[in-house]
Amino acid sequence: MNQSFTSFAYLVAAVLFILALRGLSHPNTSRRGNQLGIIGMVIAIGATFLHDGMSFGWALIILLGIAIGGAIGLVVAQKIKMTALPQLVAAFHSLVGLAAVFVAASALNAPQSFGIGTPHHIHIESLIEMSLGLAIGAITFTGSLIAFAKLQALMSGTPITFKGQHQLNGGIGILILLLIIAFVFSGGSFILFTLIALAALALGFLLIIPIGGADMPVVVSMLNSYSGWAASGIGFTIGNLALIVTGALVGSSGAILSYIMCKGMNRSIINVIAGGFGATGEAAVAGPGGGDKAVKIGSAEDAAFIMKNASKVIVVPGYGMAVAHAQHALREMADILKEDNVEVKYAIHPVAGRMPGHMNVLLAEASVPYDDVFELEQINNEFATADVVYVIGANDVTNPAAKTNPASPIFGMPILEVDKAKTVLFVKRSMASGYAGVDNELFFRDNTMMLFGDAKKMTEEIVMALGK
Amino acid sequence: MTPADLAAQAADLAHQASILAQNAAGVAAIAAQNAAPAAPFVYLFSIFVLAIFVGYYVVWSVTPALHSPLMAVTNAISSVIIVGAMLATGLHGSAIAHFFGFLAVVLASINIFGGFAVTNRMLAMFKKK
Q1: Which of the two residues, A97 and B1, has the higher pLDDT score?
Q2: How far apart are CA B16 and CA B14, in angstroms?
Q3: Residues of A acting as catalytic residues
Q4: What is the pLDDT of residues A244-268, one digit of tens each?
Q5: Do A133 and A230 meet the contact criterion of CB atoms below 8 Å apart?
Q6: Looking only at Cα atoms, what is the longest distance across chain A?
Q7: Please, which pLDDT band fits residue A285 given cuts at 50, 70 and 90?
Q8: How far does A177 lie from chain B, in Å, by closest CA?
């Protein structure tokens, strides 16, 4: 196949990928975008099958590989629960990372296949690109595995910190750079290649263990970004346009999402990566509202009565809703209220859940129309006009201390101003503090009613009480 | 000047031109050889930088409600790394290259199919009132 034809096909694929992302600017155009992405992928793979020197026998084996992987992918995608999306995405990231490592290893062993030289005589810039792709890919792989384990609760979500952690990570980082330099000057030593891989695998592991569960939205976004840069690195190595462009798209996408998530917590990316947030010592800043203050405790019937007499209810979902799988019960509640001419809206904090946009997907799964769901900036002014705010599984993102208490670890974080509503109904399992380890003074206010219990059970009880 | 002379002169000129052309081709080939390693990198790097800018503007225009599908679909498209895996598997390389290439084909395929399918599943759920 003509070289320029193949290049052209890759260009078309890259453009289609851009359009796939562009489609996500609105739910209406998003499905179309996804289809364009699929077409782009088919074109890229098809063009590669027509590459000069592709042998028929091996092409069949490649098809077999695609069939095996494709079947696994499809089954997983159909079976996965929407609440488990974050860990699925983390697992997918790890696969991109590992694939990058494998392709780098192939390129080192058969450089002639990619036109970057012959074994032991690989172009210098190809060696640089290859080792960068390898290192980032390996970091992405182990980092994503740890993120997966934390999200899947295979390991504790509490940060694992030890003395000299940052020095160790920094040391490994420098070691990787030195190994890359040595690798390039050695003309592609296999041993050095393996050492780079091992050091990068260790670094990926060490980078993510100190990061706590609720910081996972940032971590998942960051690893998304890494997987993109790894793909770009490999794209440079093998001189493939589609791969370079896509890697750059994905890399900047992940970086932007990380930025949005950090802003949603008023923390710098460095602060998040350094980790250990909410691990220890936060009890000291518990501040006002210790255990001696009384809270108002209500029942499902009380909540139902208050909501029935309201004219506007805003629901604030958080990770607790996902854990309890309460989204369907929540929508039933909203349906009954709407029948009674109560206006119901949903308010989503940028960092609610364990990945960007997690709450939106869960609400969509429960058939909540997307035009009832609002972002923080869109709805924050409306809390003052709301009769009832129903906080379900969220805590820190509603804490007024973020605005009033400079000593609080979450000070400066943008919050949903639920305290401005007439009544706040707080569904919570216990009085335990949120992830940041700070008390929420909202619990002790006169217009707050605590509804203790499992988010799903409580909501179902309210639905029953409303039905009476 | 007879037509025969003219023809001879023309032939001579043509011969000289062809020698010149050959020389030029040789020079061009040498120049191309010298330029070859540098030019593609700068060229690819320019595309890379431009693509980052495209990505920046496109991703900022994604509605926050669709950030989860965005992650899933970026996952799927970054698996276009399968192209590298296919070349490693399918061209006449070494046994090791075939082996790693094949593994990478399988991994990338899981991602491609899984990523697009789960994105599709998510997007199908977003409905208007």
Answers
A1: A97
A2: 5
A3: 396
A4: 999 999 999 999 999 999 999 888 8
A5: yes
A6: 80
A7: very low
A8: 21
Per the listing, tokens 């030029």 go with B24
Q: Closest by alpha carbon to A448, among A391, A383, A376?
A: A391
Alpha carbon B86 to its chain centroid, in Å, reads: 14
Question: Among candidates B109, B79, B85, B111, which has minimal Cα distance to A106?
Answer: B85
Q: How deeply is A146 buried, as exposed, middle or buried, from its count of CB atoms within 10 A (0-12, 13-18, 19+)?
A: buried
Whether A414 and A379 have beta carbons less than 8 Å apart is answered as no
Whole-model pTM? 0.87
The length of chain A is: 468
Using CB atoms, which residue from B64, B93, B115 is nearest to A350?
B64
Beta strands in A291-422 (DSSP E): 312-317, 343-348, 373-375, 388-392
Structure tokens at A1: 């196949």
Three-state DSSP state, A374: strand
Q: Cβ–Cβ contacts within 10 Å for residue B119, how many?
A: 30
Among A323-332, A429-438, B109-118, which is the least confidently predicted range?
Answer: A429-438
The distance of Cα A24 from the centroid of its chain, to the nearest Å, equals 16
Q: How confident is the model at residue B35 (pLDDT cuts 50, 70, 90)?
A: very low
Q: How many residues does chain B have?
A: 129
Contact A66 B105 (CB under 8 A): yes
B61·A257 Cβ contact <8 A: no
Q: In angstroms, rounded to a whole number, what is the distance separating the alpha carbons of residues A210 and A218?
A: 13
pLDDT greater at residue B6 or residue A406: A406
Q: What is the pLDDT of residues B38-54, one digit of tens each?
A: 457 899 999 999 999 99
Q: How far is A404 from A419, CA to CA, in rounded Å?
A: 13
| Residue in A with minimal Cα distance to B87 | A113
- pLDDT at residue number A1: 57
Substitution target in B49, B68, B103, B120 with the highest count of A β-carbons within 10 Å is B68
* C-alpha A239: how far from chain center: 30
Q: Are A379 and A314 in contact (CB under 8 A)?
A: yes
- Picking from A202, A178, A180, A203, the residue whose alpha carbon sits closest to that of residue A193 is A180
Q: Which amino acid is at A218?
A: V
User: Which residues contact residue A114 at a Cβ distance below 8 angstroms, ignoring those fewer than 6 apart?
Assistant: A107, A126, A237, A238, A239, B84, B87, B88
Give the position of tokens 């499992």. A454
Residue A43's CB is within 10 A of a number of other CB atoms, namely 20
| Residue B29 pLDDT > 70 | no
ipTM of the complex: 0.91
Helix (H, G, I), strand (E, B) or coil at A376: helix
Token digits of residue A353: 């859940």
